[in-house]
């Protein structure tokens, strides 16, 4: 991408929206399994991704595997648009005389993209995680108390989590609207951005790894520097770079998931910041716990970013805008 190429925000929004909608629809059940596997502590409810998906399908039905998808589908368009457009912008900003970027500059561009996207990513994942983990919590409570036991209140129900208090609401399926409203009412905008710091710690390294790796792999499919790579090559490049980056930052993703989860099951640890969370996971579950959901995460991110880069390099947004003009 040359330094004179103008960034079209509407086109990036369309590209991000198309890629996000297609990607999320395809891989969301695996993302749900990832969240549930990362959140379970000790002797968990699920033994792995397949077991989680089978149990979710049996207990919650097909649509149960898409719990929280509406939040993702709503916010994934601006998230992907910001991430891809920001990387494009920073790459152009850091380029000199249209020369190829050095690896350090590519990493800096990725860092900028990762920092920009958390404006949308942090609240999106905050709401999504609550919806995804509700089913696991219900099974966990029943497992702890016995299948015939009544629902129990969550351990240490804090006053700043209004929608979790009381036994009657323990198994009530949450709503993203209710969660967002209660958080805004009790904590203000800060409540929706809980875990912002750890989200930055995850997304900035991810982008530092992903974008330079993608750019260099994608170059192999370009016959000339000004020519776009074929769709399939861009797709594979996005998949490879996405899976590598996803696995690399999985420990940070585990921390983010645990910190952003508002509800905790009976006997599960609660956390007071990144350091406290990391210490308790290491002490109570061992170092292997930091890689929980790594396989699921790779399976989610690989096609998601493969599709995103394929759509981005094809230029569906540019084509649509050109057609109407």
Automatic annotation (TrEMBL):
Alphabetical keyword list: Membrane, Mitochondrion, Mitochondrion inner membrane, Phosphoprotein, Repeat, Symport, Transmembrane, Transmembrane helix, Transport
Catalysis performed (reactions): L-glutamate(in) + H(+)(in) = L-glutamate(out) + H(+)(out)
Annotated segments matching region Disordered: 148-167
A Pfam family that the UniProt record links to this protein: Mito_carr
Keyword Membrane recorded: yes
Main location as per UniProt: mitochondrion
GO biological process: malate-aspartate shuttle
Annotated InterPro entries: MCP, MCP_dom_sf, MCP_transmembrane, Mito_Solute_Carrier
MF annotations from Gene Ontology: L-aspartate transmembrane transporter activity; L-glutamate transmembrane transporter activity; symporter activity
Entry's localization field: Mitochondrion inner membrane
Residue spans of biased composition, Pro residues class: 150-160
Entry's transmembrane regions: 298-321
Solcar repeat residue numbers: 7-93, 101-220, 229-318
Membrane topology designation: Multi-pass membrane protein
Keyword Zinc-finger: no
GO cellular component: mitochondrial inner membrane
Role of this protein: Responsible for the transport of glutamate from the cytosol into the mitochondrial matrix with the concomitant import of a proton (symport system).
Protein family (similarity comment): Belongs to the mitochondrial carrier (TC 2.A.29) family.
Designated name of the protein: Mitochondrial glutamate carrier 2
Native organism: Gopherus agassizii
